[in-house]
Amino acid sequence: MPIRIPDALPATSVLQQENVFVMTETRALNQDIRPQKIIILNLMPKKIETETQIMRLLSNSSLQVDIELLRVDNHKSKNTPSQHLNSFYRSFEQIKDKNYDGLIITGAPLGLVEFEDVTYWPQVDEIIQWSRTHVTSTLFLCWAAQAGLKSLYDLPKQTRSQKLSGVYKQTVNPGHDALTRGFDDQFLAPQSRTADFPVDYITANTDLIILAQSDASGAYLMTSKDRRQVYITGHPEYSASTLADEYHRDQVAGLNPMLPINYFPNDDSSAVPKASWRSHGYLFFSNWLNYCVYQATPYDLKDIEPSLD
């Protein structure tokens, strides 16, 4: 089944060129089906790129997915045209009385900024708390995972002394959780963060279940017991070139970045990198949609029960 997105959204033409089944709003009017309603709070600077990356992964499902885009109110984006935001994004005021099957909160380039210094932190915190009563399952990506731990567990920011960047091998912990169904025992995942998620720290201060982790990068995939909140500390949505784009951007900015680990062929930053994590990304999003959203959500979204976590 397709993902349902606005006809004129830039991601529509990109995904159609990749033979992704995209249903435009015009065609969806003739469908008699209750789609899964997913809203994406996009905090990344290059919003169009991030929209496309996430929608690409959401498309690999037998479910029909109706996608809406959410922005932080009154926050001016430097990298996305205001016309695009005004055309395709909703404010929290516009959606706060609605219920959704799923919410995805993206990362943000705020790893070294304390929460109280983030201008829109109060709004992000409000949306996270709102999700407990209005969303069946919330997926936190990278910086959003840190934000979720702060909002829901009041955990202070843990910061690494050196940025973690590259593609890291993750190990699935023993068990048969639905979120890791079909995963290899070990898989690769992109990381790009200064936030730190030590396994011992997460275990000691939360009731989250850690489903996958790495000695080098810490906890990778975590979930609440009821799967109402799911945390990924990396970027399974990244395209093959995203880490390279970030590395070269930081070079130009004079930040002297470290070469991403296990990423460029032969560690040659002029070489074209290949994605080694794509199958994991597709499988994870498919599992999340199926087991955390579709099989857990009530038919009538007004019947969503509050999350106790």
Structure explained in plain terms:
- This protein has a single domain, classed as Class I glutamine amidotransferase (GATase) domain (Rossmann fold, 3-Layer(aba) Sandwich).
- The longest helix is centred in the last third of the chain and has 17 residues, at 278-294.
- The chain contains 10 helices and 12 strands.
- Strands 1, 2, 3, 4, 5, 6, 7, 8, 9, 10, 11 and 12 form a 12-stranded mixed beta sheet that branches.
- It is globular.
- Helix content is 31%, strand content 24%.
- The protein is α/β, with parallel strands linked by helices.
- The two termini are 32 Å apart.
- α1 crosses α3 (47-58) and α6 packs across α7.
In N-to-C order, the SSE pattern is EHEHEHEHEHEHEHEEHEEEHH
CATH superfamily: Class I glutamine amidotransferase (GATase) domain
Mean pLDDT: 90
Roughly how many Å is the radius of gyration? 18 Å
The main β sheet shows up as: 12 strands, mixed
Helix and strand content put the structural class at alpha/beta
CATH class reads: Alpha Beta
- List unreliable stretches of 5+ residues: none
Total strand count, please? 12
Measured between the Cα atoms of the first and last residue, the distance is: 32 Å
Tally of separate domains = 1
Shape: globular
Fraction in beta strands: 15-25%
The number of helical runs is: 10
